[in-house]
Amino acid sequence: MQRLFNIISELCSFIISHCTEDFFVRYSCVSTGETQRVEDLVRSVLPPLFRSEGVVHTLSQDDCTEDFYESLCTLIENLKSNQDFFAVMGLTQILDEAIESALKAKIAEFQIDDFSVVLNTNRETTGIGLLPRCSCWWERKRRLSHVYNRMDNFLFNLLLLENSILGELIDRHFFLPKTLFPGFAKKKSLKIAATPLRLSRDFEVEPFDENQVQYFKISYNKSDFEKENELVFQKILDAAKNEGDIIVFPEMLGNPEMADFIGEKIKKLASENPELAQKIPSLIVLPSFWEKKRNTVTILDKFGNVLCRQSKQNPFRAELDGKGYLEGIVSSLVVNIFHFEGIGRIAILICKDFLTTKYMEQLMRCFKLTLIIVPSFSTGSYDFRQSFDLCAHDDCNVVWINTCAAFEPGKEANFENIGYVRKRISRSEDESQKLCKMPICPTAFKGECRQDCIFYETIGAV
User: What is the pTM of this model?
Assistant: First the structure.
């Protein structure tokens, strides 16, 4: 169906490039008569697309004959030449519905791959990328169609990626296998574990000048990596015993040996204690590590394998002795998106990436994100809380975890809570469940840390 994916991409590109926002406003209230006109027109030329009155046929590879494609292309050319935008839109919707089964089969194929590229091969010329769209239990079917007037409001099986929204960013997609969240289909919920990890920070902030700008870099002190890594592994075991599906650690508290250490420990656990190994969180978002002008999070799966590494894209601006310094990172421009049926699409936005509203909304709108994970090292939570509502407005839940290591004397009020889960809830649920708080341990303000803090929150269907 490669050719069909390319054709759909061309149809989407035609509508987006030729129609104003007002078109989508009017099409959202298309009349019954107009819908019938388009259906009759498409049926007369492409009978394989319909099996009965008003019911779109599930298109198979065998249906996509040369005659089918020839008739489809002729119809499209006629519609374009007549500027029949309503019919072009209607035809695109019919094709989106007809390939639902084919897209589910594609998801199964993609789950075997390390990472996946878009379905169509003409993304560069059309400016459109297409992927199967995984459903989400807390996402409304017509997500924000009353707020945003866009082409993808009218497609339900295809995820439409517009290069004009993505800009210079490079997207990589990971369709996670069913075996990674084995119980999700039954329980329809995710249990999130998040930990601030520890109070101590084993690094120094070093300022430097470069190209007329003041920057800072992170220099880690020589420390006992094994002890740090063992603490992280114990947190993972704690989450396993409490049946957490995802565990999230803060920013900056990683080290160069951590990913290998944790991966090996998990694989060793599989032979020593297979029952506990089965409960290891499906996704492990390790603490980020600052190295060679990159601030990077490593994401492991429950089997100890590295799924990918996500680098921070937007530098943090710090005040040192009353002067401004930029975090001396170089953006990789790579954005990793995880897809899973029922969960939707997950992205990791490291601290300032989430606070950079334009960047955050760019990803949310382009990929229709349903869960954002935010590892942080911050002296306050206020700005993050302000951004949570933007995500909830888009049916996107957020997990934000800070660390006590970021605490500075005199800023106790900023650390009342060390993390939050902002989630979409149903109208019948208690409003207080929208924002779930993770209160800081009171002893942290006294410089005492037992290193045993870990929080749990469940995100479920709405």
Answer: 0.95
